[in-house]
Amino acid sequence: MQFFLSTDLVIGVNEALNLQEQVRLVGMQKPGVIFDANLSTSPYFQDVLKGLTGRFGDCIVYCNEFKGEPTYAHLEKVAEFFRSNIPDGIVAIGGGSSLDLGKGVALLLTNNVPALSLKGFPQDVNNPVPLITVPSLLGSGSEISFNAVFIDEAEGRKLGINTRRNFPKKSVIDPQLSMTAPMESVIASAMDSLVHCIDSFGSLKHTPISRIFSIEGFQRTFYALQQGQLDRAESRLDLAIGSICGTTALMNSGDGPTNGFAYYLGVRHKVPHGLAGAIFLKEVMRYNFDHGYDKYALLNPMRTTPSPKEATQELLEEMDELYRQLAIPSLVPYGYGKGNVAELAKNASAALKGSFAGNPVDFTEESARHVIYNLT
Length: 376
Known about the structure:
The chain is of the alpha/beta class. It has 2 domains: 8-178, Rossmann fold (3-Layer(aba) Sandwich), CATH 3.40.50.1970; 183-373, Dehydroquinate synthase-like - alpha domain (Dehydroquinate synthase-like, alpha domain, Up-down Bundle), CATH 1.20.1090. 47% of the residues lie in helices and 10% in strands. A 6-stranded parallel sheet has the order 1-10-5-4-2-3, with helices on both faces. Helix 3 (72-83) packs across helix 4, helix 6 runs antiparallel to helix 7 (237-251) and helix 11 (341-351) crosses helix 13. The two termini are 40 Å apart.
């Protein structure tokens, strides 16, 4: 059994206002800052940025206006921006896409190669410049992960740059930075946490330690969503902890069909990754339960029965209620109906064999058809 977690964490309301001190502690004197354009209108973020630029006069600032998940071509463009005036570290502030962009830039600043040459799982790369991540949404887990998602436009696939050298040195997590995000983005990101927790929990590669993180992350995120008090920064601390736990569990186990489906739907229809995962999550859980998997009972903090089967059924009913509360859609709004179930199942199965293989019960193209049929 192996387990790893490599990022120092600072978590709390208003912690970002002291970001310049965290940057100093990492050893940066000339930081490069990448921030999400969506934060530009946030007075709180402006105070954070002023603290950085006031403390570091040579700070180099880039506003990331790219919509959606970054491509390798966009990564190359941003890396060239910083190569003209090289910083001694990167501070990435924003959603998962901007944090992933920060990882890619930090690596390219010490590896003068085309971004596409690093796609997949690159070997023999130099250590990147130090990276600090500051998430403005809570759920993707990119703030502590070594994975960085990038899209290969030629192949129409998410391949990313995945090396353990990508681990951020530090993550400063302040829910105040998420308060200006649209609530639908907050919910989609939180649902991404639930996918990470459930996929990692059921993964055939799970360990006793990874399951501790899966369970804790699921319960904190699920409870925060149920309570419906996400208009308070303090209430979002549970989302922050859930994000960390879910991603830590996923890194130390593996994913399953839900995460695989989400990647496929996201690329094909530009659906936000968290929402794409949410669409499939409950039906994959239901499929596994109907085929004898009752260990989801361990995720249910409110179970009223010692029977694993009955406790799992209770949890699925709670999931049904949460989906109604959050208005999680089916596949119909994205153009799918009963007539193209087989096509989607075939394409997804061909592209996602690795994700399907991690499921706790046998999951095939026929299984995919069953899940998709119930969503159309």
